[in-house]
Every structure is written in structure tokens, then in C-alpha cells.
Design goal:
The protein is of the alpha+beta class and 444 residues long. The chain is 20% helix and 38% strand. A hairpin with a 4-residue loop joins strand 13 and strand 14.
Length: 444
């Protein structure tokens, strides 16, 4: 009874101790990769020329937004009385309809809007509404001129038709950035709260000298965006970058450079594709597409650092009657100097050096000498360096394993796999390296 009572007390003590002991959380190493998807907002710069009205009157457009117009193409008409607008409103409903091509273009506009909609930019709803209204009016007016031309002549309606004086893509949204150069970019340029864009609709009165449309004369365009110090370190030496445009399923590669604006450094990506898709936009959201790097994925919290001695590789030898590898260490006694083989664990190799444990009782300390095999050459222990690593707990206690970080983000590292002294898939490592010490027994 006494023996069983003692066993019972011991078991109760063990259970209480185990329950009160802090459990070390572990992480099972898996293969994976990190995709850094940082979003940027850039300003679009193009070769744009604003056209102003040469008289006051009511304007009607005949070229839709984003369409390429040749020199001599009828872009808009203007009449002082507004009679053409009234005539089109009275007669086009029964005689003019939208074509299937017109409807397809309108559907594309709605699809692009639904994919890129952002609650924080609600003004885009009104921009899209006005754009659709303008496009419908343009389609109707353009079709009406073909179907109702003779009727307008009979009614004696006169108006001035204005034709394009240069080839290019027509756009009706005018803001204050048409002449902006990269060197004139500043932090305030990205403040969208103060951004304003004017767009005259068909049938509206316009004053002489007011902007009536603009022509984009080149397919070359640039996106300029703010860069942090980390961005400059990551991309500063790049010549080209691939970007993905949010909500449009488009990717493009362009020439990249770091430019100096009025109050800092900015990134500039020069592109020659997809300019027409952004003809109505001044700001664009995108992400930089980085090369995918595969390896072993581990949490940032699992990583720690450890200092090691550096010893030349050619000093390594094998024990006389064992398969262990290590170094011949000089020891001193009253009887003189002798050489003793010390088995040594290698943690990493770099260049011509091995990384070995520091200041172990049965290992090496600063100032110790090791002897080169089959030679009288000696090397004094002292040079050191630190390594990043994690605590492997496969054996039930914490063992430091070195890692080689390939890429990282705020939560994870992707580290090199198949390293001689590193980690392997399915290894168990300590989730938070700060909670344990090397050699500590681990209770999972």
C-alpha cells in the first residue's frame, strides 16, 4: 500500500507539473514559396494634346472615347442655337438604334468597371455613368447623321463640323496633367482627393477657348509611382519590370528606371502595350510581378541567430579508430604538448571555412590551436561569424540548424532546400525561437 501510494503521489505530481509547464509550439516544415503582392498606385503619363473650341455653342460628338481617328475624321460639331441637339432628340428615337458593335463596347465598359470597383473610390461610379451616357449619345449621334442627314438639310439646320487636325486616339476627359513631365511629379500628385477631371457631354453648351477633347498621339506611355526605401533596394538595379493591372487580367513588361521628382525619388515604367485600355484613366492600380522562388517555407518567428568559429576546411580530419570527423587540438600539460582528436559537428560551410560550435566544455575556445593533418601547420581559433537558423526538435531537444533565406515577407521566409547541414521537408522546428535555448528538452 505504501509503494502504491508513493507511485500515485508521483503520478499526480508529474501530471500537475506537465499541465503547468509551458508547451513549446512547433511548426512542420513544408515546401512552398512566397509571392509578394504589394499594391501600388501610379500616375499615367502620355503624349496628349488638348484641343480647344474656336467658338461658343452646343457640342455633339461623333467619335467614341478611346477610338483612333485619322487626320480629317469628323470628331464633333458645334452650333450656336442648339437646334441640332433638339432635332436629334426629336427624331433619333424612332429612326436610330444602337448596333451590336455599340452594345458590345458598352458591355466591355461595364465589365471593366465591375472588376475594378473600389468602395473607397465611389466617385468612379459617376465617372462610369457619365462615360456610358456620353458613349451612348455619341453612338446615337453618329448613327443619326447617317440616317437623318437629308432631313436636317431639309429643316435648314446649319452647324460647324470640326475634323481632327492630327491622327491619334480621341479622349474627352481633360485634367491638369496633360503636360506633366516625370521631373515635375511630387507626392501631392498622388493625392486623389484634390484630383478633378472635366468631361463635356454631347448636347451641352461650351464656351469659346474651353477644352473640347484631346488627342493621344503615341502608344508609348509611362506609369510613375512612389517608392519606399525598401522598394528602391528591391528594384533599384532592375532594368525591366513586369506589372499586373488590378481587375483587368493584364500583364505587361516595361523598361524601369528610378527618377527624381520635385520632392523625392519615384519609379517609372515605360510601356508600349495596352495604352488604349487606360485612355480614360489618370491613376492606375497595379502590382509588380516578382519571380517565383521555391524552397522551404518557415515562419519569421522561428528564426534566430547564433555565433560560430570559422576554421579552415583543410584542417578537418577523421578519428583514428572511428568514422567521426573533427580537428586535432593542441593540449598542454606538465609533460609537454600533445595533440588530441576532438569530434566536431559542422553547422555550415562557406568558402574555405567550416562553422563550428563556440566555447563548448569539450570543444574549442578562442585561442586554442588546431594542427593540420600530416603537417606542422597550426591555426589559432578566433575568427567568428553568425548564422541565421532555427531550432530543430526532431530528436526531442533543440538543435540549431542553419538556413539560407531566398525571399521573405512580413510573416514567412522561403529558405533554400537540400542543404547539407540544413532543414528537410517535414522537420519539426520551434515556432518561436525566443522561447527555448539550444539543447533544451522539448515537450510537445
Amino acid at each position: 500500500m505504501i509503494i502504491f501510494a508513493l507511485i500515485f503521489i508521483y503520478m499526480v505530481f508529474s501530471v500537475i507539473t506537465y499541465a503547468r509547464r509551458d508547451k513549446v509550439q512547433f511548426y512542420e516544415v513544408q515546401e512552398g514559396s512566397i509571392v509578394n503582392s504589394k499594391d501600388y498606385t501610379g500616375i499615367i503619363l502620355r503624349q496628349e494634346e488638348v484641343k480647344n473650341a474656336d467658338r461658343s455653342g452646343y457640342v455633339n460628338y461623333y467619335v467614341r472615347e478611346g477610338k483612333r481617328a485619322a487626320t480629317g475624321t469628323r470628331v464633333y460639331s458645334i452650333d450656336e442655337t442648339g437646334s441640332i441637339t433638339s432635332f436629334l432628340a426629336d427624331h433619333s428615337q424612332d429612326n436610330v438604334t444602337l448596333t451590336s458593335e455599340n452594345l458590345t463596347e458598352l458591355k466591355k465598359q461595364l465589365t471593366a468597371f465591375s472588376l475594378t470597383y473600389d468602395n473607397n473610390q465611389f466617385r468612379s461610379v459617376y465617372d462610369t455613368k457619365y462615360a456610358l451616357e456620353s458613349e451612348v449619345m455619341e453612338y446615337m449621334n453618329l448613327n443619326a447623321l447617317d440616317n437623318l442627314g437629308s432631313m436636317m438639310d431639309e429643316a435648314g439646320i446649319s452647324f460647324e463640323q470640326v475634323k481632327a487636325d492630327q491622327a491619334g486616339i480621341v479622349s474627352y476627359g481633360v485634367d491638369s496633367f496633360e503636360g506633366l513631365q516625370p521631373s515635375g511629379i511630387s507626392e501631392t500628385s498622388f493625392d486623389r482627393s484634390s484630383y478633378a477631371k472635366s468631361k463635356t457631354q454631347s448636347g451641352k453648351l461650351i464656351e469659346k477657348g474651353a477644352p473640347v477633347y484631346k488627342t493621344i498621339t503615341s502608344d508609348q506611355w509611362s506609369v510613375v509611382f512612389p517608392m519606399s526605401e525598401d522598394d528602391i533596394k528591391a528594384y533599384g538595379d532592375k532594368k525591366n519590370l513586369t506589372v499586373g493591372f488590378s481587375g483587368r487580367d493584364l500583364k505587361a513588361t516595361g523598361s524601369f528606371s528610378v527618377i527624381t521628382g520635385t520632392d523625392g525619388s519615384f519609379g517609372k515604367i515605360d510601356l508600349d502595350k495596352y495604352m488604349v485600355q487606360f485612355v480614360s484613366d489618370r491613376y492606375v492600380n497595379f502590382e509588380i510581378v516578382s519571380d517565383r522562388v521555391d524552397g522551404l517555407k518557415i515562419p519569421v518567428t522561428a528564426v534566430t541567430k547564433k555565433d560560430f568559429y570559422l576554421v579552415p576546411m583543410d584542417y578537418m580530419t577523421q578519428g583514428g579508430d572511428s568514422s567521426s570527423t573533427g580537428f586535432n587540438k593542441e593540449v598542454y600539460s606538465d609533460s609537454g604538448t600533445s595533440v588530441v582528436f576532438v569530434p566536431t559537428e559542422i553547422y555550415y560551410s562557406e568558402g574555405n571555412n567550416y562553422y563550428i560550435e563556440m566555447d563548448q566544455a569539450d570543444g574549442f575556445k578562442a585561442g586554442d590551436y588546431i594542427v593540420k593533418p600530416n603537417s606542422t601547420e597550426r591555426y589559432q581559433i578566433g575568427a567568428s561569424n553568425s548564422l541565421q537558423g532555427v531550432y530543430n526538435i526532431n530528436k526531442g531537444y533543440a538543435v540549431f540548424k542553419q538556413i539560407d533565406v531566398l525571399v521573405s515577407n512580413d510573416e514567412y521566409y522561403t529558405v533554400k532546400k537540400n542543404m547539407t547541414y540544413g532543414l528537410a521537408v517535414y522537420d519539426h522546428i520551434v515556432l518561436n525561437a525566443q522561447t527555448v535555448n539550444e539543447g533544451e528538452l522539448i515537450y510537445q
